[in-house]
Amino acid sequence: MDSATPDQNQRPTILLVDDEPINLSVFGEFLTRYYQVLVATGGQSALKLANSKAKPDLILLDVMMPGMDGYQVLAELKAQADTRDIPVIFITALTSDLEEERGLALGAVDYIYKPCHLSILLARIGTQLELKKARDWLRNQNAVLEAEVERRQKENQLVQMQLLQSEKLAAIGQLAAGIAHEINNPVGFVNSNLNTLSGYLADLFCVMDAYAAALAANQIAEPARSELQALLAKKQLAYLREDIPDLLAESREGLARVRGIVQDLKDFAHSDSDTWELSDLHKGLDSTLNIICNELKYHCKIVKEYTEIPQIYCLPSQLNQVFMNLLVNAGQAIETQGVVTVRTGCQANEVWVEIGDNGRGIAPEHISRLFEPFFTTKPVGKGTGLGLSISRNIVAKHGGRIEVDSEPGRGSRFRVCLPIARPQPA
Ligand SMILES: Nc1ncnc2c1ncn2[C@@H]1O[C@H](COP(=O)(O)OP(=O)(O)OP(=O)(O)O)[C@@H](O)[C@H]1O
Ligand SMILES: [Mg+2]
Q1: Contacts within 8 Å (CB) and 24+ apart, 157-166
Q2: Within-domain flag for 41
Q3: Can you tell me which atom of ligand 1 is nearest the CA of 371?
Q4: How confident is the model over 47-80, as pLDDT tens digits?
Q5: What is the domain-level CATH number for residue 89?
Q6: What is the band of 265 on the pLDDT scale with cuts at 50, 70, 90?
Q7: Does 320 fall in a domain?
């Protein structure tokens, strides 16, 4: 195929506008060898064709035409967004500098006098088409670049938010571990003092018993005897003897609970969040449940259905984070009263932890978007929409996956499947 006559479909389209049939036929016949040619004999029909589907790549426009002249046509073309960028070459018998100046000032890309050499016309059309191609390419590139900048901005924003979130969690972990450590000391000495105190009290009661025996055997003389009897009756010694051991036992139980909370905090925060270790997921689940029980206990009944599972290699505090996100989501899905079920099990080389609720469930059209960063259906300030996306990243780091099953109005189940062995680093 001749390089000057490219494939019919790829040929640029030229719109030829002239009221003289002879001009249309001379230029038209010549240009048809190189381009697809549309013709119009007046301004109105030219504008119609310029706005049509087969929009021209360039317009060759006569100036002097009855009705609407070339300048008016050009002004109309420039006024509309759809046609503003089509290059227009005036081709006219008006050989005057002033006219040429006017045409160019209106936005024409070139101004050619009639009669003209057809090869010169062809070359000037070719130049303008090349320029247009370059302009279109630039505009396209600009749009691509702008989209890329926007994409990167979003990506950066996401990384920033995730960083902030994990820094926040690390800070909370450190704080929790620090507080736990500080609480441990006083708890330790109060506990030890309670033990000593109960020994001392036993001794004191021995002494009191001796007094009571002496009283009973009439070995104490008056008036000390009556005073002592009155005092014993007033202070209800028998009641004290019964109640003091109960008080001590309650205090010890209270301390044991404080110790439990401190241990949960420590287990949950797990000071070294980047250390892989063999860990018991039930322990992590229990400490997480204890940490967030305040959020759940008033409107959720927690049902645990643990089965025996092996320890797995994992980053325990990060997995606790996942359990926490899933449990909080389950709690938030329950409007008035409901049940949150925590199940565990294992199959093949995996263990799974399932957190289910009988709350509002998830709309089918939302299922595919749940793990998208910032996807949330919660009111502003209540959810950032990062919980599940961060959880999925953590689980993926463990070589695992999260499966979702939900029925609107009936509840949801999120199952975290994790390999028992440590995954090979990617
Ligand atoms: N158990 C569930 N029941 C119903 N909808 C849920 C449940 N878990 C998650 N979703 C839906 O998935 C969305 C995304 O959850 P995700 O945990 O990522 O963000 P969030 O809870 O909205 O906010 P954040 O966790 O950042 O505070 C929620 O807004 C909610 O619509
Ligand atoms: Mg959440």
Answers
A1: 158/373, 158/374, 161/373, 161/374, 161/384, 161/386, 162/373, 162/386, 162/389, 162/390, 162/393, 165/384, 165/386, 165/390, 166/390
A2: yes
A3: 18
A4: 999 999 889 999 999 999 998 999 999 999 999 9
A5: 3.40.50.2300
A6: confident
A7: yes
Residue 212 is predicted with a pLDDT of: 85
Output the CA 133–ligand 2 centroid distance in Å. 50
Residue 236 maps to a domain: no
Residue identified by tokens 């010890």 is 252
Residues enclosing ligand 1, CB less than 6 A? 325, 329-330, 333, 357, 359-362, 370, 375-378, 383-389, 412
Domain with 85, as residue range(s), is: 8-116
Distance of CA 329 from the midpoint of ligand 2 (Å): 5
Tell me, what's the pLDDT at 267?
72
Ligand having the closest approach to the CA of 384: 1
* For ligand 1, atom 9: residue with the closest CA: 329
Angle at CA 177, nearest 5°, toward 171 and 180? 140
Ligand of minimum distance to the alpha carbon of 355: 1
Q: How confident is the model at residue 297, as a pLDDT?
A: 86
**What is the distance in A from the centroid of ligand 1 to the CA of 363?**
12
* 185-200 pLDDT per residue, tens: 899 999 999 999 999 9
Residue 343's CATH number: 3.30.565.10
Give the angle subtended at the CA of 287 by the CAs of 181 and 174, to the nearest 5°. 40
- Surrounding ion ligand 2 within 5 Å at CB are 329, 387
Q: For 138, list phi and psi in degrees, rounded to 5.
A: -60, -45
Per-residue confidence (pLDDT) for residue 270, from 0 to 100: 63
* pLDDT tens column, 4-15: 444 556 899 999
Computed over every residue of the chain, the mean pLDDT equals 89
Helix (H, G, I), strand (E, B) or coil at 218: coil
Distance 385 CA to ligand 2 centre (A): 6
Tokens (6 digits) for 62: 């006569």
pLDDT value at residue 5? 46
Q: Dump pLDDT digits (tens) for 91-137.
A: 998 888 898 999 999 999 999 998 888 999 999 999 999 999 999 99
- Among residues 69, 94, 116, the one where a domain terminates is 116
- For residue 382, which ligand has an atom nearest its CA? 1
- Looking at the structure of the chain, the number of domains it has is 2
Q: What is the dihedral of CA 3, 7, 8, 11, to 10 degrees?
A: -60
Given 67, 95, 116, the domain boundary residue is 116
From 378, 384, 392, 415, the mutation candidate for ligand 1 (largest count of ligand atoms within 8 A of CB) is 378
Higher-pLDDT residue of 175 and 344 is 344
